[in-house]
Amino acid sequence: MGSLNDIGVAAGINILSAVGFLLVFAVVRIQPINDRVYFPKWYLKGTRSSPRHIGNVLSKFVNADVSTYLRFLNWMPAALKMPEPELIEHAGLDSAVYVRIYLLGLKIFVPITVLAFSVLVPVNWTSATLGDDEEGLSYDQIDKLSISNLGQGSKRFWVHIGMAYVFTFWTFYVLYHEYKVITTMRLHFLANQNRRPDQFTVLVRNIPADPDETVGEHVEHFFAVNHREHYLSHQVVYNANTLASLVEKKKGLQNWLVYYENQHAKNPEKELIIKTGLWGLWGEKVDALQHYKTTIEELCKQEDEERQKVISDPKAIMPAAFVSFNSQWGAAVCAQTQQTSNPTVWLTEWAPEPRDVYWPNLAIPFVELSVRRLIMAVALFFLTFFFMVPIALVQSVANLDDIERVLPFLKPIIERNGPRSVIQGFLPGIALKIFLIFLPTILMAMSKIEGHVSLSGLERRTASKYFLFIFVNVFLGSVVAGTAFQQLNSFIHQSTNKIPETIGESIPMKATFFITYIMVDGWAGIAAEVLRLKPLIMFHIKNTFLVRTEQDREQAMDPGSLEFGSTEPRIQLYFLLGLVYAVVTPIILPFIIVFFGLAYLVFRHQIINVYNQQYESGAQFWPGVHGRIVTALVISQILLIGLLSTQEAEQSTVALLPLPVLTIWFHYVCKGRFEPAYIKCPLQAGSKRILLISSPYITADDIHIVSNVKREQHLMFAGGHGEGHAATGKRPDAEPERVPQGRIRAPGLPQR
Amino acid sequence: MGSLNDIGVAAGINILSAVGFLLVFAVVRIQPINDRVYFPKWYLKGTRSSPRHIGNVLSKFVNADVSTYLRFLNWMPAALKMPEPELIEHAGLDSAVYVRIYLLGLKIFVPITVLAFSVLVPVNWTSATLGDDEEGLSYDQIDKLSISNLGQGSKRFWVHIGMAYVFTFWTFYVLYHEYKVITTMRLHFLANQNRRPDQFTVLVRNIPADPDETVGEHVEHFFAVNHREHYLSHQVVYNANTLASLVEKKKGLQNWLVYYENQHAKNPEKELIIKTGLWGLWGEKVDALQHYKTTIEELCKQEDEERQKVISDPKAIMPAAFVSFNSQWGAAVCAQTQQTSNPTVWLTEWAPEPRDVYWPNLAIPFVELSVRRLIMAVALFFLTFFFMVPIALVQSVANLDDIERVLPFLKPIIERNGPRSVIQGFLPGIALKIFLIFLPTILMAMSKIEGHVSLSGLERRTASKYFLFIFVNVFLGSVVAGTAFQQLNSFIHQSTNKIPETIGESIPMKATFFITYIMVDGWAGIAAEVLRLKPLIMFHIKNTFLVRTEQDREQAMDPGSLEFGSTEPRIQLYFLLGLVYAVVTPIILPFIIVFFGLAYLVFRHQIINVYNQQYESGAQFWPGVHGRIVTALVISQILLIGLLSTQEAEQSTVALLPLPVLTIWFHYVCKGRFEPAYIKCPLQAGSKRILLISSPYITADDIHIVSNVKREQHLMFAGGHGEGHAATGKRPDAEPERVPQGRIRAPGLPQR
After folding, report:
1. Same domain as B561, residue B418
2. Where do the CSC1/OSCA1-like cytosolic domain residues begin and end (chains A, B) (predicted)?
3. Between A147 and B586, the higher pLDDT residue
4. pLDDT band at A663 (very low <50, low <70, confident <90, very high)
5. What is the distance between the alpha carbons of residues B121 and B115, in angstroms, rounded to a whole number?
6. Which of A356, A557, A676, B571 sits in a 20 to 30 Å window from A662, CA-based?
7. Average pLDDT, chain B
8. Nearest CB to A370; choose among B343, B370, B669
9. Percentage of residues in chain B with pLDDT exceeding 90?
10. Radius of gyration of chain A (CA)
11. Between these two residues, A630 and B264, which has the higher pLDDT value?
12. Angle at the Cα of A62 (from A61 to A64), degrees rounded to 5?
């Protein structure tokens, strides 16, 4: 365990590096050349144009205005200045609520810290146990501030027990209040949305096959009978993989056409000759403009043919449909009710908004879905507890002596000292690092296999999987040194009530480690986040070598979304650490507060200026966030019980037992009180009515490829989702009683 | 452990006693004097009249027809003869499905027994381990038939593992099939019910207070706005305790009036003089007929006044209402959807049928409800694991030496040997026995505190609590001798994977005990059930001393309902024993089959001739039954893993691990596939429409006391539920477009 000095040094280093990052950021961000990296959101909104269009050549690249350097920290107040309603308007509710997670951390931990430092720290400090030992073993000062300073069976443990109750009830209060506020925000947000099409649309899956009717007719008849007064129209889902690849190809060609047209406009005399073969290196020489125009024309024809084929081919129709209703009431009714006596067919749920739909999963049959979930549950278990096994295998294969034996000709290289030590030192770490980088992707793939139909749902499922992994492998793994597999093995060979004891006992000893972890992973990580080093480099590389047209530039600066599935569980780790250590070693709390404060600042800046959400789920992730904090609370209570039961304070253990019971009960109360607002839509709010809806789920002129489809069968006529809208930042709102122009209905589509 | 001989003897004794019971039953049931005890259901249906009205005096009491004695066993084929649709028509779906639980036992265990005896028994028998030991310790033959006969690490365990898989999959198949059949039966049953009022009615609870409107107006406005096209009428719930007690009093007086009128009719000359004081012993002498007529008239007036008072007093209105819709579709929509953005108010659910409503729980606020559930969960835990503590206290108080010290004058009595040994031997047992007799009542009271709104819901919750108790205290308590508290204590001080090992290891040794248990509790218990000794005695006592009028006689013969909450968990114990021992000691299986067969026969007879269900829930309990069998399956698998892991067969343990995972998965598949049919009503079926419904939830001429209401505040104008209908056996069907006659609407009741 480290002394206060050690921690001071570490803190100094980390503060310096964080400040360094922030300084670099402050300088880099005001350079015009980087403007598109640090303010992409404003470009996408169309309210900011490149500062490079004005001024002289130098000022296009470097900012020479000294006054801006003096005000280099003004992004911080600017980030805080935007009021919340405007923030919601600007960045969406998802993002606005996401930064509230950090705020929630501050709300929970600032009062807890004040209380812990005014009550627990003096109590710990004045306990003489560790100080009495003057014979040589020098105890660290941190231990004098922690619960370890109390002797076995000390009466002072009652103070800690009381504090555990106070902290728990404070957390209850803040969590409950926050859940309430965010639920209100969500309902307000949904009510204010001006006739969003998904508020009138229901996704119907597992439509049973009918021998006499097509899927479209079947849907129409079913809903016309069972929702007579509210059914408006429907759109079946088509499998149009071929069509989608044609569209994608056409887009690429059109981009080239734009490029050559620009070239031609700049220099009308120059003949633009390209070769038709591979990568323009071989083949016949043709005129570029002419070539692209004719190819695009051909593709258009092919597209039309393919479209006709898809529409007329019953095999291309998936057993899923989007059904629209003439009132929100009708849609709410349909989404919340069971349609037939067989609950595995005609499954209805609120349609995700068009950008949020995950198309490949729309047509999975009921039984297959449950088999998939079973397999993924088993896989998650093995991934969490045995992920070290394949990595250890890779590492053993990468053993240099083995390599030498198998490939003797490498011997001279390997036996030289330099490379040997480098490889020996790095290889094992690299295998692990690569795995950890790909982990969110792996977990996301698993969620996709589970068959959720919306991107937001996928993110939420990934987050809960990732939290499990972090809890087992980062938290428990650090506390009880050893891989999860070893832990599992030792735990199942241990008495049930010994497990919390074993973990609880090691908790105080790991405080220094976690303080360092918070500084390195938390502080420096957040500072690196604001600098956006990787996007900065990538943008300049792309801008220099690949960007030909405006469309290319927009793609190059695409800032992406907040990756909820991988960032949120990491925040949860700090909640867990804070709650676990609040009673045990309160000295860790200020570090967590700094993290939450800094992160709040940075992410508020990022969602204002950088990130552009791909979809808007209306803070549907909050029940998950709430649930994980409650889980962390229960874990912290069980570990405290374990710790105290090793301190010969049996009565105190009993006094703590009601805490986890109360916490679980609190969870159910909140669930019953608020969760329905995230799943259902109340009928009372459903008075909005429309007469005609142009479904954003269907227009035939804009088709997206659904990648990673194994059986190559799922795809549909899909407009209004994905990059198209994300890139332009437009909401796919459909104005009522008006078919938006520029959208051509595919002829022959079944429609009422 | 017993030898085959011991078991043979025990079986012989039990078979003899069971046959004895059955013989007595066969003789007793054909005596005319007992006719109302053994065929009350037919009396209630009005299709059977007393055989005592015909023949001479002797034949009124004793059956002298010799031929009926020769056919004394013909009740058995008669019980099986009634086809199922007719049985449903006659006894209701609940009862018909209840006897299918026994049939399910036969379906699961007959093939398993055949397979176990043709495969496992030979494998166990030919293993030489226990037989080799010729030196003196003689092993029992039962052990030679059980898994214990295999040596440590024997290869033959693989046969048992294979069989565990076969048994599991067979159970899956039967369970799935049965769930499907019963779901179909339920939907068919509901569809065939001719416009049952509860199919159009939704129970609304937690109606928020409105400063400007009464509850009735508030409900009307809310539903008229939010369910414009379907809302028909509503009925608020009144608290009318005083009124109810008046009605009850009137009923008693009317019974006396009928009695005296009968007396008068028999002997018109005799003057009927009674005293008005206590029990007719003191006070003024008056003419009986006149006295009762005037008193009843007065009560009628008081009733009218009280009724007016209740209706006009806003404080008497509870925040709950029954809302009726003009179509099943409208009611289905309202019951399944969330009404407002606050999910704790305007809670809607399908109304239980009128007889099934548990009135006192209709008006519990949301927060209070969750507090109650928390307290009951904690109470259940303590009841299950610490129920021995108060009993041990009682027993220690009842210690004779202590009694002698406190009450020295009892010394001469206590010190005599006879009473001493009797009391010493019986007292501890009696305390436990009394507790066990009252246990279902205690559990039912706990369910009531939990706040369920229907009697069927209360029964279901009680059943699951009782199953937990039986599993912990009967099954585990017998396997690992010792109280649940001792077990809990030893378990939490034991390694997690040692718990199934400890239990699993003792399993084979307890086979003999459980075989005896099945014979005593199962066989003899069922035989006693058919004899109905207690109702037989009670009826004759009442008939002799208390019965004055026909109404009294009907009350005396009231057969009651099947007590689902206390009988079903006991059946589940047999499922558990069968599944646990199927692989371990198959010799137990024939005993279980005999139990299920006998019980099926007896209960089919009982529901045809005796029991009269108080309510009809449409087999809503099946998901619980299914869930508990699946739980038993998982328990059996875990115990088998535990047992095998003590037999030095590590690989086999691993080979069994997928079983519990698969079983849990199977549970979720069934839940998703079938459970909604027991909670929701599909919209497709909801095409029935009515124009006017006379709510059976409200008529003012028939009011019931709700007993056990602590705060004396819940009661309502309630007709059509409880004994009134139960006793006459009529369904509370309301014919459409017609207000049933004989029901007087209370004037001024809010109604649309």
Report:
1. yes
2. 199-361
3. B586
4. very high
5. 9
6. A676
7. 76
8. B669
9. 17
10. 30
11. A630
12. 140
- Higher-confidence residue of B1 and A29: namely A29
Check whether residue A339 and residue A411 sit in a common domain.
Answer: no
Q: Domain check: are B630 and B652 in the same one?
A: yes
Q: Rounded to the nearest 10 degrees, how much is the dihedral formed by the CA atoms of A725, A729, A733, A738?
A: -80
Question: Based on the domain organization, do B568 and B622 belong to the same domain?
Answer: yes
**pLDDT tens, position by position, B516-549:** 888 888 888 888 888 887 778 887 887 777 777 7
| Number of residues written out for chain A | 752
Burial of B654 (0-12, 13-18, 19+ CB in 10 A): exposed
Instruction: Say yes or no for a CB contact (<8 Å) between A496 and B497.
Output: no
A113-116 contacts: CB < 8 A, separation 24 or more?
A113/A586, A113/A589, A113/A590, A113/A593, A115/A163, A115/A166, A115/A167, A116/A163, A116/A582, A116/A583, A116/A586, A116/A589
A439-457 mean pLDDT: 91
A713 shares a domain with A645: no
Between CA B306 and CA B588 the distance in angstroms is 63
Provide the residue range defining the domain that includes A215: 197-352+697-752
Question: What does the mean pLDDT of chain A come to?
Answer: 76
Question: Which positions 72-111 of A are in contact with B (Cβ < 8 Å)?
Answer: none
Distances from the Cα of A577 to the Cα of A504, A636, A730, B74, angstroms: 13, 8, 40, 74
| Residue A552 burial (C-beta neighbours within 10 Å; 0-12, 13-18, 19+) | middle
Q: What is the pLDDT of residue B697?
A: 55
How many Å apart are CA B242 and CA B253, to the nearest integer? 17
Compare CB distances from A340 to B337, B665, B682 and report the shortest one's residue: B682
Number of H helices, E strands in chain A: 36, 6
For chain B positions 668-687, those within 8 Å of chain A (CB to CB) are: 668-669, 672-677, 680-685
The answer to whether residue A516 is domain-embedded is yes
Nearest chain A residue to B183 by CA: give it: A341
Distance from CA of A723 to the nearest CA of B (A): 33
The enclosing H or E element of B235 equals: strand B231-238
Alpha helices in B646-732 (DSSP H): 650-656, 658-674, 676-679, 723-728
Taking contacts as CB-CB distances below 8 angstroms, the residues of chain B near A662 are 374
**Same domain assignment for residues B318 and B405:** no
Q: ipTM beyond 0.90?
A: no
DSSP structure class, residue B621:
T
Residue B693 confidence class, pLDDT cut points 50, 70, 90: very low
Among candidates B621, B569, B620, B571, which has minimal Cα distance to B596?
B571
A523-537, B416-430, B540-554 — most confident range: A523-537
What's the gap in Å between the CA of B189 and the closest CA on chain A? 13
pLDDT of B467 = 94
DSSP string, B26-81: HHHHTSGGGHHHH-HHHHHHT----GGGSS-HHHHHS---HHHHHTTTTHHHHHHH
Residue B234, token pair as written in the block: 């509503």
Does residue A333 lie within any of the structural domains? Answer: yes
Condensed to tens digits (0 to 9), the pLDDT of residues B209-257 reads: 888 888 888 888 888 888 877 888 888 887 777 777 777 788 878 877 8
Which of B222, B226, B338 best tests the A interface by mutation, with the highest count of A CBs <10 A? Answer: B338
Burial of B402 (0-12, 13-18, 19+ CB in 10 A): exposed
Distance CA A684, CA A200 (A): 14
The DSSP secondary structure of B264-293, one letter per residue, reads: HHH-TTS--EEE-SGGGTSS-EEEHHHHHH
B706 in any annotated domain: yes
Residue A490 at interface with chain B, using a CB cutoff of 8 Å: no
Q: Are residues B120 and B238 in the same domain?
A: no
Shortest CA distance from B687: residue in chain A: A226
Residues B246 and B330 in one domain: yes
pLDDT of A464: 93
The answer to whether residue B379 sits within a structural domain is no
Last residue of a domain, one of A648, A679, A710: A679
